[in-house]
Specification:
By secondary structure, the chain is an all-alpha fold. The protein is built from nine helices and no strands. The protein folds into two domains: 46 residues, Arc Repressor Mutant, subunit A, CATH 1.10.10; 148 residues, Tetracycline Repressor, domain 2 (Orthogonal Bundle). This is TetR/AcrR family transcriptional regulator. Keywords: DNA-binding.
């Protein structure tokens, strides 16, 4: 698929920031890898910092747009909505490793980094909490869920489980001794299955026959 010049720059920068870090990646590095003139970065984004911010803006908008679309789907019950939103989250972590590596690095700097990005992250987190709140409340009202766990704990269970699982994957692979090419897919399938089991118990959901 052929990307527009601005998207080519953005995706190239995302890859390089993940590999080398923000400080060690220059605009010339990005331009060379993207096959564009370095002036194009200033033209489309203004600066390396603004390009970094745009990566977060684009990626977080993608995830939340999907979640809101699912939330408003009248053909799905609350459990189905929750599982589709979480499934998309896990798939994004799996297929966008560069972005989630950058995201982890931002968290690792103890909130002392780019204030605009930290604001994006806070807004995104609040957005997902509100999505889960609506699913939880409507699911209880409609009898889909028989338990109502603490909202913030529910959010922490979902995000924490997925995010930490990504961080630990290489260590777990080493300890398991499984070096097959299929390990990556099996790992994320197991993550999805086990998180589903955990959430069923947490929410008191019993699947209809």
């Amino acid at each position: 698929m052929e990307h527009s010049t601005d998207k080519k720059i953005l995706y190239t920068a995302e890859k390089l920031f993940a590999e080398k870090g923000f400080d060690a990646t220059s605009t010339r590095d990005i331009a060379k890898s993207a096959g564009v003139n370095v002036s194009m970065i200033s033209y489309y984004f203004g600066s390396k910092e603004k390009l970094f911010e745009e990566i977060f803006k684009v990626r977080m908008k993608e995830g939340q747009s999907f979640a809101y679309e699912i939330l408003e789907n009248p053909q799905l019950n609350e459990w189905e909505k929750l599982i589709k939103i979480i499934g998309n989250y896990i798939n994004r972590v799996k297929t966008l490793p560069e972005f989630y590596s950058i995201l982890q690095s931002v968290y690792n700097i103890n909130n002392s980094g780019n204030e605009q990005i930290l604001s994006f992250l806070r807004t995104s987190k609040i957005g997902y909490i509100k999505i889960y709140q609506r699913i939880l409340e409507e699911g209880c009202e409609n009898g889909v869920f028989t338990k109502k766990p603490d909202l913030f704990f529910l959010h922490s269970v979902i995000v924490g489980t997925v995010f930490y699982s990504k961080q630990g994957m290489n260590l777990y692979r080493e300890l398991s001794g499984n070096q097959s090419d299929e390990y990556y897919n099996i790992y994320y399938d197991n993550l999805t299955q086990n998180l589903t089991i955990l959430l069923k118990d947490l929410l008191g959901y019993e699947q209809e026959n």
